[in-house]
Design a protein that fits this description.
Length: 325
Amino acid sequence: MTDIKRILVIGAGGQIGSELVVKLRGIYGNENIVSADLKDDVCPVLKETGLYEQLNITDAQRLAEIVKKHKIDAIVNFAAILSAVGECHPMRAWDVNINGFINVMEVARELKLKQVLTPSSIAVFGPSTPRENTPQETILRPTTMYGITKVSGELLADYYVKKYGLDVRGLRYPGIISHETMPGGGTTDYAVAIYFDAIQKGKYTCFVNEDTRLPMMYMPDCLKATTDLMQADFSKLKHHGDFNVGAMSFSVKELAAAVQKRVPDFEIEYKPDYRQAIADSWPMSVDDSAARQEWGWKPQYNLDTMSDDMISAIKKKIENNKLSC
Ligand code: NAD
Ligand code: AKB
């Protein structure tokens, strides 16, 4: 385990960041995890259990000030514009995902931080990539601005490792499914919305067709993958910013059947939009043997165990009148 003491999580108000902050506070101590995001109306837990700073990641000076002020020695960079929003605002996606990211790398280099973790995505792949069991090393020609920024991020991560000896790590997350904080504008968001709409409205209109099959992962596995990679022995890693990580893979038809099994009156209709083409350009499943070999990655949840958990968690939230952030 690395001897990291104080971590800055940027983009902490998002779907993954809001839950990762809580997990990291459990591991490193509440006072040692500083959360930051562009928006101020984040999940209350971020401010209730530790420090919070408002930060635009494209502001390099303020980023450096926060790192110095809190004696930060590692950064988790979750600030991003995801695929669907990125296609509506490509320049914003470039600015946050590339200019913001390079600010993180430069502050880490200049202030000699011990680690940067920055996620990549299955969006690095494109229509010319093999779609089944997509290899770790393969064609990276994405057709979305989001994917282009993620490929660039992976290359930059490797560059900083080789040129400066900076400890940079990253995973190619699949679609992440969770119930605490709603997803922030990705193509895989349907796999979260279907559960909420099934329970609250009894029906869901899906923006991709029923045969769309993508790799997905439940949040507890996502958090475990992230902290396991953060704590892995850097000297044993052959890859750095680009680990494929798989967990499950299902079509929307199979997902809808899993929901129907638990919410019998559930109905689904399909109205594919521009996100269909994005989904069709991504893998259906990934080969994550490098992650398994280099840092022991192993997922726990499948479609059935995740669906049981999602549905009971959302029902509990509704009973307690406490819906997601
Ligand atoms: P999200 O959209 O839910 O959260 C991103 C956060 O970044 C938001 O809270 C947003 O306010 C913040 N942000 C945006 N612009 C900012 C700026 N200029 N300065 C500071 N903060 C800013 O995203 P997420 O799903 O939590 O994703 C986290 C990371 O994981 C991203 O790098 C994303 O590409 C990657 N990822 C996510 C998924 C997924 O399914 N959730 C899959 C693959 C990769
Ligand atoms: C998105 O759909 O944009 C994200 C991702 C897979 O990167 N969930």
